[in-house]
Amino acid sequence: MASGNLSHPTEFLLLGLSKDPEVQPLLFGLFLATYLVTVLGNMLIILAIICDPHLHTPMYFFLSNLSFVDICFTTTTMPKMLVNIQTQNKSISYPGCLIQICFVLTFAGLENGILVMMAYDRFVAICYPLRYSAIMNPKLCGLLVVLSFLISVLDALLHTLMALRLSFCMNLEIPHFFCELAHVLKLACSDILINNVLVYVVTSLLGVIPLSGIIFSYIRIVSSVLKIPTTGGKYKAFSICGSHLVVVSLFYGTGFGVYLSSAGTHSSRKSAIVSVMYTVVTPMMNPFIYSLRNKDMMEALRKLMSRVLCLN
To answer: What is the residue range of 98's domain?
Structure first.
C-alpha cells in the first residue's frame, strides 16, 4: 500500500467479518435474521409496556428505554453492514464513518447509564420499599434518563471532534463491520496520544464508575435480602433482580471481553468477531431475558398479541 497521508479522506473500507465470497450469503442471512429479531423483540417490549397500565412503573419505564436504545444501537451498525454484504461494496464515506462512531458511542453510553438506573431502582425497591414511590417518582426517572443521554452525547461528540483533527494514511481499510473508534485511530498518520489518553480516561470514568455503582447496589441488595426471614421472601426478592443481573453480566462481560481480546491479540479480525457479542447478540437477547423470566411481562405480551389478533 502506498505511503503518504490524506488530511480529508473521502471514504474508508469496512472489511467485515470474512473475505470469503462463499460465506457472504450466510453472513447476510444470519445478520438480517438477527437484526429483525432484535427490532421486533424490543419493539414488542416497548408496545407491551405502553399498552399495559400495570407496567407503568419505574422498572418498566427504564426497560422500555433500554429496548429503545437496543434498537437504535443495532440500527447504527447492522443496516450498513447488510447493504455492504449485499452490494459487495465495502466503502463507507468519511463523514458517514464519523457519524457512525458518534452514534455507537452515544447509544453504548446510554445503555450503560440505563443499566445503572435499573440497578438503583432495584436497590430502592428492596432496601427502602416504604419510600420507593416517593424516591422513584416520574420526574426523577425522566431526569436520570435525560442526564444519561446528555453525558453520552457529550462523550461521543468529544471523541468524534478529536478524531476530526487527525490525518490518515493511504491505507484506509478497517478490519471490522463498522467504524469502531479504536480501529479508526490505528489508521491515523498523525499523533494520536491525546486521543488515546482521552479514550482511556473517559472509558475509565464512564465504565468503572457505573459498574462500581451497580456492584455497590447489589451488595446492599444481597445484605437486605439475607435479613428476610422466609425462604419465599428471599426467592421473590432475588427473582426481581435476576433478569437485570443477567443483562448486566452479558453487557459488561462481552464489552470487557472485546477490549481485553483486542489488547491481548494482534488479530483485528478476531477482535471484530468478538465485538459481535456486545453489538449484535446482547441487544437481541435482552427482550428474551426480560420476557421469559418475568410473568408480568409475559402477560402483557399475551394481551398485546390478543389485541393485534382481534384487530385482524
So the answer is: 9-311
